[in-house]
Specification:
Layout: H1 15-22, H2 36-46, H3 49-56, H4 63-69, E1 73-75, E2 90-92, E3 95-97, E4 101-103, H5 117-127, E5 131-134, H6 141-148, E6 153-157, H7 163-175, E7 181-184, H8 194-198, H9 211-214, H10 217-225, H11 236-247, H12 257-269, E8 274-279, H13 282-290, E9 295-298, H14 312-323, E10 328-332, H15 338-346, E11 351-354, H16 356-388, E12 401-403
Parallel strand pairs: 4-11, 5-6, 6-7, 7-8, 8-9, 9-10, 10-11
Antiparallel strand pairs: 1-12, 2-3
Helix pairs in contact: 2-16, 5-6, 5-16, 7-12, 13-14, 15-16
Organism: Kwoniella shivajii
Family: Belongs to the FMN-dependent alpha-hydroxy acid dehydrogenase family.
Pfam families: FMN_dh
């Protein structure tokens, strides 16, 4: 770009558009389209059957997934705003990040690509976006941290009822530089997901994905106590079963647990933030604040846990109204485009978490696929800010949106 017209700015994600166009001068083009529906179809063709089913399955018949993608909010662009020096950066929990977009915690990445979480952690560091590792991840905590380098990283906890194991996981995360803890509330056990069940599609029960457990000293003791040997391939399915049955155990915790867990994490981490993920009701948001949480993630687990539930964007405004001045609110579920990011920020979220997009990219082309998908999303968002007349993240508010009553459809795919 001519610097006399567009002054240099960092980061300038919009330039990725030109980079893609310029491939034509080499007789080439990007490896795949990041249009969400086409990306999803290509991922279906690229992944193994089990990988595709696990990535795409929703609770029940998918009502909640559809609710996440119903586009009733519309952006109102403003004209003749000088956006040439616009800024996508923001601060999140003391980290200056290049955009209010985080890598959502996704489990068992090895079923999408052999390197699994290493791919996403590396790209997140390159882009200076927060990376969130799931307890159900399929690479050791320490290895993911190494791949993430000096990038901001958070740890998503599935809380076992084995307190010694809980302590070990939290300490390993902190020692590995994960300085924000996010407890997911909505997945004590998996929802009824028809196609996964019909195909007995559960990687852990097949001995795949227990790497965080296998590298944990407490869980290694539990394996030994059970007479299981990780060196014996025949024991791996039982080890995988034992690990995930500790993590997604089917026995819900209650609000009594939260102040104790907050206190524990604060002691381990010298006071770093603790969040709850899965909040869908204003009263639960208030309880989170009362329990000492620094933030919440408004999320319905991308429609994967409760069929027929509200879309997360539907409830975001009332949750922001209830606690938006008392804690940091992140948003998750249904983010596919720059417009989705913009709408969530306009409705009061500090940042969004993106999951399925980069999982599909990983399934198509590994690390390069993750990079292409996320750089495309960032460019889409940056360019949308330009075209909508918004100069910086803090300028995005509800005045830029209109809600259309009774208008549905899947405009955001």
């Amino acid at each position: 770009m001519d610097p006399s017209i567009q002054p240099t700015r960092e980061p300038n994600y919009a330039l990725y558009q030109k980079e893609c166009f310029l491939l034509s001068q080499q007789g080439s083009h990007p490896d795949f389209s990041t249009r969400p529906d086409k990306l999803e179809q290509l991922a279906k063709e690229s992944l193994t059957k089990g990988g595709w089913l696990y990535a795409s399955c929703n609770a029940g018949i998918g009502w909640t997934d559809r609710a996440n993608r119903e586009g009733r909010w519309r952006i109102i662009p403003r004209m003749l705003v000088d956006t040439t020096a616009r800024d996508t950066t923001t601060e999140l929990f003391g980290h200056k990040v290049n955009a209010p977009i985080c890598f959502a915690p996704i489990g068992i990445n090895k079923i999408y690509h052999p390197l699994g979480e290493i791919n996403a952690a590396k790209v997140a560091q390159e882009l200076n976006l927060p990376y969130c590792l799931s307890t159900a991840g399929s690479q050791p905590i320490e290895d993911v941290a190494k791949a993430n380098g000096n990038g901001p990283r958070f740890f998503q906890l599935y809380c076992p009822h084995d307190e010694e194991l809980e302590d070990s996981l939290l300490k390993r995360a902190w020692d590995s530089g994960f300085d924000v803890c996010i407890l997911t509330l909505d997945t004590w056990q998996l929802a009824w997901r028809h196609e996964d069940i019909a195909n007995s599609n559960y990687a852990f029960y097949r001995g795949i994905g227990a790497d965080i457990g296998l590298t944990d000293p407490v869980f290694r003791k539990r394996i030994e106590e059970a007479g299981l040997n990780p060196e014996n391939p025949e024991d791996m399915p039982k080890i995988g079963e034992k690990w995930i049955d500790n993590v997604w155990h089917g026995k819900a915790h209650t609000w009594d647990k939260i102040p104790k867990l907050v206190k524990k994490w604060k002691a381990i981490s010298n006071g770093r933030p603790f969040l709850l993920k899965g909040i869908q009701h204003p009263e639960d948001a208030r309880k989170a604040v009362e329990a000492g949480c620094d933030g919440i993630v408004v999320s319905n687990h991308a429609g994967r846990q409760v069929d027929g539930a509200v879309g997360s964007l539907e409830v975001l405004p009332e949750i922001v109204e209830a606690v938006g001045d008392k804690c940091t609110i992140l948003f998750d579920s249904g983010i596919r485009t720059g417009a989705d990011v913009f709408k969530a920020l306009a409705l009061g979220a500090k940042a969004v978490l993106v999951g399925r997009l980069w999982v599909y990219g990983m399934g198509i082309s590994g690390e390069a696929g993750v990079r292409h998908v996320m750089k495309s999303l960032l460019a889409d968002f940056d360019i949308l800010m330009n075209c909508a007349g918004v100069n910086k993240i803090s300028d995005i508010d509800k005045s830029h949106l209109r809600y259309l009553e009774g208008i549905g459809g899947l405009g955001n795919m």
